[in-house]
Amino acid sequence: MVRVGESFEHLKIVIKIVEVKPYFDPSNRRCLMVGIILIDGKYTSPVYHFWMGKNEEIRTHIEKCANDYLSHQKAILGIQP
């Protein structure tokens, strides 16, 4: 179960869950909209949302979010190559 306030760490990036909203998709399956923030040292991201099935594993979504952030980290932080 996904809960607001939970924290995860992946590749030194801390991911905090700040919002969880249940909803039903058009096929009437129960799903969740999850809002997270990523913390990388002194940088804290704006809220980022993703959608998942109620029975899906949160860890795979968390790792994907952290990996996406790391692949764009230089552009986000304004670091020159």
Topology:
Elements: E1 7-10, E2 13-24, E3 30-40, E4 43-44, E5 48-53, H1 58-71, H2 73-77
Antiparallel strand pairs: 1-2, 2-3, 3-4, 3-5
Task: Write up this protein.
The structure is a single chain. This protein has one domain (7-77). It is built from two helices and five strands, in the order βββββαα. The chain has helices at residues 58-71, 73-77, and strands spanning 7-10, 13-24, 30-40, 43-44, 48-53. Strands 1, 2, 3, 4 and 5 form a five-stranded antiparallel beta sheet that branches. It starts with 6 loop residues before the first strand and ends with a helix.
- Low-confidence segments, given as residue ranges, are none
Q: Return the structural class.
A: alpha+beta
Largest sheet: 5 strands, antiparallel
Compressed to H and E, one letter per element, the order equals EEEEEHH
Distance between the ends: 41 Å
Radius of gyration based on Cα positions: 14 Å
| Helical content (DSSP H or I, runs of 4+) | 10-25%
Average pLDDT figure: 91
What fraction of residues sit in β-strands? Answer: 35-45%
Number of separate strands: 5
Q: What is the total domain count? A: 1
Number of separate helices: 2
